[in-house]
Write a structure and sequence with these properties.
Blueprint: H1 2-19, E1 30-34, E2 43-48, E3 54-59, E4 62-66, E5 72-76, H2 86-167
Antiparallel strand pairs: 1-2, 3-4, 4-5
C-alpha cells in the first residue's frame, strides 16, 4: 500500500511539473482578405501580420484595403492597427543594433589604444614636469649665486678702492703756526 501511495505522489509531482512548463503563442498571424465586408464573401488573399496595406474606406467593422501588389479587398477592423507591429519594430531594432555593433567594434579598439597611449603620455608628462621643476630650481639657485657673485665682486672692488686710496694718499703737510 505504501508503494502505491509513493508511486501516486511521484506521478502527481511529475505531471504537475510538466504542466507548469512555459509555452508561447506565435505572433505570426494570417488574416483573410475578402471580396466584400462580411464572412459570407469569398477569400481572395491571406495577409500576413506586419504587411502594410492602404486604407480605402470603412464600413460596419470592415475596412477596404489595397495591398502592395494592387489587390483590393476587405479585412476586419480589429486586425488592423495604425502603428507598425512590435515584431517588425524589434527586427528593425535588432538590425540597427547589429549595424551599430559592427561600427562600435573598431571604435572600442581605437579607444583602448588611445587610452593606453594616453597613459604613456601622462607618465611622460609627469617625468618632463619633474625635470622642468628640477631645472627651474637649478635656474633659481644659479640666479641667486650669480647675484651673490656680483655683490661680493662689487664689495671687493669697493674695498680695493678704499685700500688703494688709503695707501696712495699723500702725506699732509703740517704747518706749525706759532
Amino acid at each position: 500500500m505504501k508503494r502505491f501511495c509513493f508511486l501516486g505522489i511521484f506521478l502527481l509531482i511529475t505531471l504537475t511539473v510538466n504542466q507548469a512548463a512555459g509555452l508561447y503563442v506565435s505572433d505570426s498571424l494570417k488574416v483573410t482578405m475578402r471580396t466584400g465586408p462580411g464572412v459570407e464573401h469569398k477569400i481572395i488573399a491571406m495577409v500576413v501580420s506586419g504587411q502594410e496595406v492602404k486604407k480605402l474606406r470603412s464600413q460596419s467593422g470592415w475596412t477596404q484595403v489595397r495591398l502592395s501588389d494592387g489587390k483590393v479587398g476587405w479585412i476586419l477592423d480589429r486586425f488592423l492597427i495604425p502603428e507598425e507591429p512590435s515584431r517588425l519594430a524589434l527586427e528593425k531594432l535588432r538590425k540597427k543594433h547589429d549595424a551599430l555593433q559592427v561600427k562600435t567594434a573598431p571604435l572600442l579598439k581605437e579607444n583602448k589604444n588611445l587610452t593606453k597611449k594616453n597613459k604613456e603620455l601622462n607618465s611622460q608628462l609627469a617625468e618632463v614636469t619633474k625635470k622642468a621643476e628640477k631645472l627651474n630650481k637649478e635656474l633659481i639657485d644659479l640666479k641667486q649665486s650669480r647675484a651673490l657673485y656680483w655683490f661680493f665682486l662689487g664689495t671687493g672692488v669697493l674695498l680695493l678702492g678704499f685700500l688703494i686710496g688709503f695707501l696712495s694718499r699723500r702725506p699732509q703737510r703740517r704747518s706749525y703756526l706759532l
